[in-house]
Amino acid sequence: MMTKFLSRNRHTVQRLGFVAITLVAVATVLPIIGTVIYILVKGGSAISLEFLSGFPHDGMRAGGILPAIIGTLYLTIGTAIFSVPLGIAAAIYLSEYAKDNQVTRLIRLAIINLAGIPSVVYGLFGLGLFVLFLQFGTSILAASLTLSIMTLPVIISTSEEALRAVPQSFRTVSISLGATRWQTISRIIIKEALPGILTGVILGLERAAGETAPILFTGAAFFLPRLPHSVFDATMALPYHLFVISTQVPEMPIQIQYGTALVLLVFVLTMNVIATVIRSRARARRQW
Amino acid sequence: MEKSLSWREFIITRLIQSSGYSAILFVALIFFFLLREGLPTLSEVDASSLLNFRWYPIESYFGILPLLSGSLIVTLGAALIAVPFGIGTAVYISEIAPRWMREILKPLVELLGGLPSVVLGFLGILVLSPFLRVFLDLPTGLTAFTGSLLLGGIAVPTVVSVAEDALDSVPRAYREGAWALGATKWQTIWRVTLPAAKSGVLTAIMLGVGRAIGETMTVMMVTGNAPVLATGLGSLFSPVRTMTATIAAEMGEVANGSTHYHVLFFIGMVLFIISLIVNVIASSVVFRAKKRAERILS
Fold first, then answer.
1. Which H/E stretch holds residue A244?
2. What is the maximum span of chain A, computed from C-alpha positions, in angstroms?
3. Global pTM value
4. A162 occurs within a structural domain
5. What is the ipTM, given to two decimal places?
């Protein structure tokens, strides 16, 4: 054992080991880059003004994907309206108010569980509660509410982390200057934690924008040759549209499929990049 | 003025508190609605036919075993891919990579986590499955293995980020102690850092597996959707159908309140309970580890 531990080969072993682990990391990352580039290249030629701003026709085999783009935009905004205030408030509760007791532990367990529930089960839940029980029908409202609850754990946990990172001395000083707890939170703590909260919000919404399973039975329309008129209308959405045209429509031109994948990817990646930039900028500028 | 201020403070505090409690409410609501729509199954279909290996709803065969085995085999395959690649990447990022490399790799892995599963399924249909069909000489490229490969990719970001956190939180003194005793960096990683981060790494694996079991769109698109009982590892290279894919594919076509509808909710209930168990165990491992860390530090 001792001789093996100190054997002269151990530096060779280390060198080989490092090479192996580096290869594993490269093998993990390369397909990611490959996927993105592949879709950018293959889908690029499908992109035109007509594709982005037109309605689909000929059984979706021609024309544009505007209703799907607008639909995903609506769903993302709808999700934000419900999940952002609720998620940030819950994060404030956990970081600033909650005592370390059984109930708080139960809340944390609930959040972890929410994060782990399969997306299609969210779809079932949304169908049961929003579509049927509350009679919202398959609608933007029902789909947004379903996506909101799914997004909640991401927003709560990242926001809480950002709030907790604000040094305790900020709170002490503010309270000692006569501010109330809420004044301290709303004017000092949130302001300091804002970049972190924003990152979490965008990452959560990014996930909502790309999800298909939760909206399958709660609000996604197979084909809708117009824009939705109200929150009680169903809507087309980019992820569901991509699913439909790549599995359900025979003789679908490959161009349109790649083009749709590209638009969805750009939509999601833009949010991802914005979140990453906000975070790294805030880190660089942080004084504490 | 004073009074209105304190009233406002009181109301805001209550609002914030109820937002915090809402997480519990949502889990309870989800479970309640799954039970409400899923439990009638038990009175409509008897247990013996539910635990059968024939899923053919049109003729009222509701055996969920093929779906269960489909989910298990695809997830097992995904774990075999996600664990080595996920842990390896986490070790590389946390222990080996230079700082600038880390700054590139971490957002890239996060980006993989953000790729919509439907995009991966789309590429699975168009690129991966034709390649596998030719490469492995199979009758069809839409198999459990194709699903496993893509699911492995989907689980990797979860595994990497949790495992990397765990490795990161191992005190630097542990490593320095090992180096001072003459261990190489490589020996330190395997005999000191990884064992010290064991519980976090286990959590990472469990959460990754949980992510894979619940994934829907990708598996629905690439696993061929044949509800056949998986009997062994050989089934990895034939079409299967998972629980999630079954719900997603069939819920749109069933009549509300029919037996088929109730069975699909019942499957959702099974999925919910699986994810509950995985997450409760994973988080209790984390809690215990935290307590041990506190003990060491005190």
1. helix A238-247
2. 77
3. 0.90
4. yes
5. 0.88
